[in-house]
Amino acid sequence: MKLFQIEEPDGGPADAGAPGAAIGIDACGPLAEVAFAVGGNALVLNDHEGYEQALPVPGVSAGAAAWQEIFEGARMRAERALARPVTDVVVVLAARPDGETARSIREAARRAGLGVLRLVVKQELAEGLPPLLAAAMLAEDLAPRPELDPSRPR
Fold it and tell me: Rounded to whole angstroms, how far apart are CA atoms 141 and 1?
């Protein structure tokens, strides 16, 4: 039961010092979807009422600027929903990008403040799960673990 939630006015995370979350983005359809997983349980993240933002998926070969918009919107959606920073992503694509396109997508994510853990095509994901949820679970598995980083202060 959710009794009360505090959200920053700009939609940013309530606890900027919290470890960064890893999300999954399904960019196979006309609109990108965003999900997050904890303990192997994934859920779709939707915008809060009144803050809905469509995330139209650009063509795979679109420039970095078009992809950056998707990543910025997905990150904002996730940070509002999770009330914590989002730092990493697994992206599901309809087709395998060539090397230059993959570099452009990774650069767009970096500019939006996200590290790409993996670019995958939906056929590479576990069968029986929607690609979005499988991507979120893969992101959880691949996410850097702050508690395992010896250079990070405790």
Answer: 27
Task: Walk along the chain (154 residues) and give the pLDDT tens digit of each residue.
Answer: 444 444 444 455 455 556 789 999 999 999 999 999 999 999 999 998 888 999 999 987 788 999 999 999 999 999 999 999 999 999 999 999 999 999 999 999 999 999 999 999 999 997 889 999 999 999 999 999 866 555 544 4
pTM of the model: 0.83
Q: With 0-12 CB in 10 A as exposed, 13-18 as middle and 19+ as buried, what is 151?
A: exposed
- 8 Å CB contact between 76 and 56: no
Angle at 143 between CA 117 and CA 98, to 5 degrees: 5
CA distance 39 to 61: 34
Joined together, the tokens standing for residue 101 give 């396109």
